[in-house]
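To whoever picks this up:

The nightly regression suite flagged Glycoside hydrolase family 76 protein as changed. Nothing in the input moved, so I suspect the structure step. Input below, exactly as stored in the fixture:
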Amino acid sequence: MKLKARQVAFALGASWLFTGCGGSAATSPTSGPAPAPTTQLSRAAAGIATLQTWYNSASGLYDTAGWWNSANAITVLVDYARVSKSGQYDTVFSNTFHAAQKTSAGFLNNFYDDEGWWALAWIDAYDLTGNKQYLAMAESIFADMSRGWDGTCGGGIWWSKDRGYKNAIANELFLSVAAHLANRDNVNSAQFLGWANKEWTWFAQSGMINGTGLINDGLGTSSGHTVAGSCANNGQATWSYNQGVVLGGLTELAKLNSDAFIPRAAQKIAIAAITHLVDNQGMLHDPCEPKCGADGVQFKGIFVRNLLALNAAAPQTSYKTFITTNANAIWQQSQGPGYKFGQVWSGPFDVGNAASQSSALDAIVGAAVLENGK
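Regenerated output under the current build:
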C-alpha cells in the first residue's frame, strides 16, 4: 500500500517540526503553505517524503525501482533518519526486513552484488537502531557471498552464481561488507578482517584500477566475460558507483589495518573521480546519461554516500565542495513537481522514480550531514 497524499504532507510537516529545519515549524491549516525548504536538511525531508510515496508496505520494496535499488533506498532512508534524529521511519526498516523476504528469502539471489547492497543496508540499519537481527542478516548474506570466491584470475568473487564474470562492483561490495562487519562483530572480527584484507590485496593487484586512478567495470572481454587466461582490465566504463563503494570499504578497513597505503589508495580514487567524472561545473555524470535505465540511474548517489564516509575519516575541502555543489544543483536544476528529482543532476528534470530519487537524496542527505557539522 502506498502512502496517501495526506500522509505525505504529514510526514513532511512532521520532519520540519521535529528537526527545526527551514526556519519555522510546520504551519497550521489556516496560516498558509509551509515555506519552501531552504536548508539541506529541510530539502532532504521534502525529498524523503516523496520517496516514501513509492514505498510499498506489502512488498517492503519501492515501486518504480528494482530489487537492489530498494536496498539503496532503505540505506538513504536510514541515513536521513540519522542526521534528522527522527525515529519516524523505524517501522519501515522493520517492515522491509520481514516483507521483502517474501520476494527473496534471506535477501539472497543469483547475484552477489545484489546481496552486498542488502548486507550494507542492514549494517546501516543496525548502526542506527542497534537491532541485532539486522547485523545477523548481514553476516548471513556475507557468508553466501564468500562462496563466490575462487582461484580464477587469482581470486575475487564472481558477479553471479553463474560464474561468468569477475567485476569490480561485486568485489568492492565484498570488501566493504567484510570490513564493516569486522568493525562491528567483536567475536568474529578477525575472520571478517581476514576476508577484507584478502579481497583488497587481490583487488589492488587485479588491474581493474587503471592508469588514471579510476576503476573500470571488470576483468576479461569487453563484452563482460571472464575465463582463465582472460583476466586483464576489460576497459569497460568507469561507472561512478565503482569509484564509490571501494571508498567506503577502504575507510572501514583502515580502522583495523595500519597499512598507510589503504587511505592513500582511497584518496587517489576519490580525487580521480571528482576530477575526471565531472563537467566544467563540477557536476557528476555517468556515461549512460541522459538515459541510464533502471541500474545506472542509481550509481551517482552511491558514489557521494561513500565519499561522505571517506570525508568523515579524512576530511578534504574538495570533497565537501563537491558534495554540496551537486546537492545544490539537484535542488535547483533537476527538481520536478512534488520534490521529485531526476537522473541528470545538472538538469533539466526528466522523469522521477524511486531510484533517481534515492540517488539524488544521497547527495542532499550528505550535504545535510556537512551542513550540520557531522
